[in-house]
Amino acid sequence: MQLTTHIGKRINELRKRKKLTLKNISEQTGLSISFLSQLEHGKTSATLESLKKISESLDVNPSYFFSETDDDSRSTITRNTVDTANLTENRFIYKNLSGGMKDPAFIPNLIILDPGANRGNNFSHKGHEFLFVLEGTLTIEVNNCVNVLQPYDCVFLDSSKPHYWFNKTDKPIKFLCISTND
User: Fold this and answer.
1) What tens digit of pLDDT does each residue of 102-111 get?
2) Which residue in 21, 34, 90, 109 has a CA-CA distance of 20 to 30 Å to 79?
3) How far apart are CA 126 and CA 155, in angstroms?
4) Spatial distance between the Cα atoms of 132 and 152, rounded to a whole number of angstroms
5) Is the Cβ–Cβ distance between 140 and 96 less than 8 Å?
6) How far from the centroid of its chain's Cα atoms is residue 99's Cα?
7) At what angle do helices 33-40 and 22-29 cross, to 10 degrees?
């Protein structure tokens, strides 16, 4: 299943399970009903910023939309599988490493940003994030303060502060993002 279709399907299923309308989600996120409808039907893709807004309105971590299953496993192993076909139009891969564990205390994600990826607006959400750079040079802005992280650098941040990630280089960046599931 194409990533855009998968994300839309997950949003639709969760929204209906919570008995919310597109209008409810639109009012909570500031995203248009038309955009949300197109997203649910796989006719458009979402930015990381819009997924964060939608996840907050549905009370889930953004990685929920990328997971393959809702199984409640006690332990999981995620093999070295990064599907580059899942690269979004915004040129990032967001790989949930939790193996579909239901209601984990934290969500580990592998994020790969293509050169120039994620030029957008700062966002904020509940919880905390820990970023650990594996490859490349990651530029991160937190509360209007810009920092550049090199391989093996890390940052722990309060996600309620406005923040965003950028790849301002000509090479891909790989980093781990571990966020609390608040």
Assistant:
1) 777 888 888 8
2) 90
3) 17
4) 6
5) no
6) 15
7) 120
